[in-house]
Specification:
It is globular and about 55 Å long. By secondary structure, it is an alpha+beta fold. Helix content is 35%, strand content 24%.
């Protein structure tokens, strides 16, 4: 009898789809009150997951999905920095 390994699933705050954790990007709100893109998925802080596409990022921005998930308000400058990082990830 083989044991199937459970695949962790997370919900994208942009499109609302459940996807594998590895297929998503984690954005964290650290205890030091910073917002960072967590490529490893292991950094300390409250996390929100988003698809690796700019369209999902724009949906999350428009619906304030990131703000709800991270339980903090996000200034426009931070959104622009996150958008640049998302563009690099999507292109890379």
């Amino acid at each position: 009898m083989t044991m199937n390994k459970k695949i962790p699933m997370r919900k994208c705050v942009g499109c609302g789809e459940m996807k594998e954790k590895k297929a998503l990007i984690r954005i964290i709100h650290t205890p030091e009150d910073e917002l960072l893109v967590d490529a490893t998925g292991k950094k300390n802080g409250r996390g929100a997951y988003i698809c690796k596409s700019l369209s999902c990022f724009e949906k999350a921005r428009k619906s304030k999905g990131l703000e709800r998930s991270l339980k903090t308000s996000i200034p426009e400058g931070i959104y622009e920095e996150l958008q640049k990082e998302m563009q690099e990830i999507e292109a890379g």
